[in-house]
Design a protein that fits this description.
Shape: globular
Strand order of the largest sheet: 20-6-5-21-1-22-29-2-30
Largest sheet: 9 strands, mixed
Number of strands: 30
CATH topology of the largest domain: Alkaline Phosphatase, subunit A
Number of domains: 3
Strand content: 15-25%
Number of helices: 12
Radius of gyration: 26 Å
Helix content: 10-25%
Structural class: alpha+beta
CATH class of the largest domain: Alpha Beta
């Protein structure tokens, strides 16, 4: 390790799903002034990410400096070698990575890392640093007590944007369940059953609200299996003769045993409550907002965001509770999964809390602990991809009101991100290099996303049963993960039916089926790429986890990201990842010309800091960005 390195510390600011194209536009439109300053005093370049353009391979490649065929975190749903093709391995798990993470490289160099909500970093692999959370987006976490609750009574309707919704295979931050809200009955409150009633100008009404631990969480990441629901009560009353205008939320039918008093549009404070999961008590924080209450008491909407514990989501043990006592409740998911149900303002109120609290955690940890590299992450840009970006410009074909709502949502998202970035940058001193990076980008959607298995079925390669499931006894090839088609090969797959002598012919048949396919509604060809496994090495894809055929889809036929190539642009945005770097040893105000790949970030930081390279690193040092590429020779 060289002590005369240009930089002594580093801050990595991670913005999941932010495209370089969109960030530059947001800077130009005045929504990201803090990022604008970093562009002026550093370097930047649209960065080529991993393919598929997805969270697990993107972040793992960036943090290890190695491509996904090396670290093997290929997807959210990874091929389970030796198991039936219907089985996959869930990708949010650091134990899957075959490469060394940058924070472990730091520890190997005798340095101390701090990680604040860094996705794809759980379970913790650090030994002497500090980590707060770090699982996955939205509902994909191991710690929440419960997801959101949205209690609605009377005449109520969701607030969708419309258009196609991205599937959970690319957007596991939002569960797509049949009942995404909690219907309740508004009834007359019997005064005899209540104690200590407040004064009301109209007859009391009440609602029973049921908080259910483990509800609205991803099934394979829940913290338990059984829970005890908690029943609480909302007393609806009228403080004036103008009509119902207040709700007192109570633990029981005693108005003095209350959580809070709410009026329309107001939030409660954070409130401690205990819940039973698997026979044990878990303490967490709840918060409530009365979104709407009609004057006649016939319509009611109350929102409870994610219920998060006060401890257990940090390393070393006890650090999360220590931060909670000083800074207040942590929020891992700012109700992204409720977008389109609740009003946009409620979401953005939570998003602002989310960002400001993440910034406060980073500032507190950096000011009270020794550290050498600080990692911070937000998933808000990806939430914007999946909800707002799809119809934020005219390429989507959406009506003008929808386009305006979506564009405003994106602008608010990136403005909030910029405010968070501004507070993180405050931590840096003159010896600290700062990097802003993303795992992938996102684009708008113009046409209905193509269903690959339907294309294979049309070509006679795949068969469905009457119930819509795949009939593996008649299926020669199937779409697995995001960009892979696997042949149901005899001798390799447990129930394989394709003779190995027909392997190459089947590959060619799959490729022809994809490239020849025309969307029946538009007449366009959705597939921009279809190549054999052998040729997929040009995409840094090789090995048994890679499909026998790998394909890419044109942005207009995809969701926000995933199956698009990592270099495309469409509408106001694109799939290029963000790369911005500023600080000691870095040139100023320069738009880089030569290519930058996602695997180049970790080697470049190690070079600037004088650290060893991460084990298995494949990326290069971005010499074009450096004031003195040969500093180590002096």
């Amino acid at each position: 390790m060289m002590i005369n390195s240009p930089a002594k510390k580093a801050i990595v600011i991670a913005t999941d799903g932010a495209s370089m194209e969109l960030v530059l536009n947001m800077v130009k439109w005045g929504h990201m002034p803090h990022v604008a300053k970093l562009l002026q005093r550093g370097v930047y370049r649209p960065m080529v990410g991993a393919f598929p353009t997805l969270t697990p391979p993107g972040w793992t490649s960036l943090y290890t400096g190695s491509w996904h065929s090396t670290h093997e975190v290929m997807d959210f749903n990874i091929r389970a070698v030796g198991k039936p093709l219907s089985e996959t391995v869930w990708g949010i798990n650091t134990a899957l990575s075959k490469s060394e993470y940058l924070w472990n490289t730091a520890e190997r160099a005798g340095k101390i890392p701090i990680l604040v909500k860094v996705e794809m970093s759980w379970p913790p692999t650090i030994q002497k640093g500090i980590q707060i959370e770090g699982t996955g987006p939205g509902v994909s976490n191991h710690h929440q007590i419960a997801g959101y609750h949205l209690f609605v009574g009377g005449k109520w309707a969701p607030r969708p944007i419309g258009g196609e919704r991205d599937p959970e295979s690319v957007d596991p931050s939002a569960l797509q369940e049949d009942m995404p809200y909690d219907p309740i009955q508004i009834t007359v409150a019997e005064a005899a059953l209540w104690q200590n009633l407040p004064k009301s100008e109209r007859p009391y009404r009440e609602v029973e609200l049921t908080l259910t631990p483990l509800k609205r969480g991803r099934g394979n990441m829940l913290r338990g299996t059984k829970s005890q629901s908690k029943h609480i009560y909302g007393l609806i009353y009228a403080r004036t003769s103008q009509g119902y205008d207040a709700v007192r939320v109570c633990r029981s039918r005693d108005a003095r045993d209350s959580y809070c008093d709410l009026q329309e549009g107001t939030w409660s404070e954070w409130l401690l409550e205990s819940f039973e999961i698997d026979g044990e008590q878990v303490v967490g924080n709840i918060r409530m907002k009365l979104i709407s209450l009609s004057k006649d008491g016939s319509e009611f909407e109350l929102f409870v965001p994610q219920i998060w514990p006060i401890e257990g989501y940090g390393y070393p043990r006890g650090i999360a509770n220590k931060l909670y006592r000083k800074l207040g409740p942590f929020l891992q998911n700012p109700a992204r999964d409720a977008l389109g149900l609740i009003d946009d303002d409620t979401y953005f109120e939570l998003l602002e809390y989310y960002h400001q609290h993440l910034a406060s955690v980073a500032q507190e940890l950096a000011s009270t602990n020794e550290w050498d590299i600080l990692f911070n992450e937000t998933h808000a840009s990806d939430y914007g991809d999946h909800f707002f970006l799809g119809q934020a410009d005219e390429t989507s074909g959406a009506d003008p009101n929808t386009v305006k709502r979506c564009f405003d949502g994106l602008a608010r998202t990136y403005s909030s991100i910029d405010s968070w970035i501004g507070r993180i940058v405050e931590i840096a001193d003159d010896d600290t290099v700062v990097v802003i990076a993303s795992d992938h980008g996102g684009t708008s959607t113009q046409f209905k996303p193509v269903v690959v298995n339907d294309v294979l079925a049309k070509a006679g390669l795949l068969a469905y049963k009457n119930n819509g499931e795949i009939d593996w006894t008649k299926t020669r090839a199937a779409h697995i993960g995001l960009i892979h088609v696997f042949i149901n090969l005899e001798g390799r797959e447990p129930n394989g039916i394709v003779d190995p002598n027909e392997y190459e012919a089947t590959q060619r048949e799959i490729i022809d089926a994809l490239l020849d396919y025309k969307d029946p509604e538009t007449g366009f060809r959705p597939f921009s790429l279809a190549i054999s496994r052998e040729n997929a090495e040009i995409l840094r894809l090789s090995g048994d986890l890679v499909g026998d055929v790998v394909f890419g889809v044109h942005p207009s036929f995809d969701g926000a990201h995933g199956r698009q190539l990592p270099v495309g642009s469409f509408g106001m945005s694109g799939q290029h990842s963000v790369f911005i770097m500023a600080g000691p040893g870095v040139k100023k105000g320069l738009a880089l010309h030569r290519s930058v790949n996602v695997v180049d970030v970790a080697p470049t930081l190690c070079y600037l800091l004088g650290w060893p390279m991460p084990r298995n690193a494949e990326g290069k040092v971005i010499y074009e960005a450096l004031e003195d590429p040969n500093w180590h020779l002096k």
